[in-house]
């Protein structure tokens, strides 16, 4: 990915743990690497296809002077999230905030915090087999669309499927969608649980009926296996009701464990 670099932008702001830092203010030095695709800008010589680094510098200066934080870590985190949410072409950012006048009582050139944040691509499964199933799926899609930490991508058709897991219950309505998210995997899972709870989800019977079920199928190419989260979802190759809608929106997506496309996994399931 291409880079736009901003080096040592000086900003006078009011961040710090001590009250006098918040009251009197001090100099901060900001450097950033903005990751984006500059190919179209290079071919067209048109600023609309790039990011105006002068405007980005002005936005950094405005944000850091309009807010007060105790920790550099918080200032860096909030500034990164603000820029990622407001700059449509920005995919990832590496940001360093230096504090040359850090009050530590020892000779020091500068103290700094450096973080990297960005958009990640996730594929989510949606299911419902209680009440107004379509309304529950529609509500989940809308909740994700309105979330400032999400950018909605393709949404599959809603498919009627038989229940899975051996529990006698009504048919499901299932779908899959693609979303870009600023949330790391476990925070994304927590956000999905919040949406489920808002829909009245109760976890009473394993593989039992539910108003709304949201699962993370893929998160970039990451492989995660811990007490709370398994990504890619381990049941993907066995589930027709996941592979069919996934093949609608991402047939050539490659499973990072099996190294086969979604279309190939679907064909293998029906072989």
Describe the structure.
- This is Bifunctional folate synthesis protein.
- It contains 8 helices and 11 strands.
- By secondary structure, it is an alpha+beta fold.
- Helix 3 (53-66) packs across helix 4 and helix 7 packs antiparallel against helix 8 (262-269).
- The protein has 2 domains: 2-118, 2-Layer Sandwich (GTP Cyclohydrolase I, domain 2), CATH 3.30.1130.10; 120-269, Alpha-Beta Plaits (2-Layer Sandwich).
Just name the CATH architecture of the largest domain. 2-Layer Sandwich
Task: Please give the share of residues in helix.
Answer: 25-40%
Count of helical segments? 8
Low-confidence stretches: none
- Average pLDDT score: 92
What is the CATH level 1 assignment of the largest domain? Answer: Alpha Beta
List the quaternary state of the chains: single chain
Provide the CATH superfamily of the largest domain: 7,8-Dihydro-6-hydroxymethylpterin-pyrophosphokinase HPPK
CATH topology of the largest domain: Alpha-Beta Plaits
Q: How large, in whole angstroms, is the Cα Rg?
A: 23 Å
For the record, the count of structural domains works out to 2
The assigned structural class equals alpha+beta
How far is the first residue's CA from the last residue's CA?
39 Å
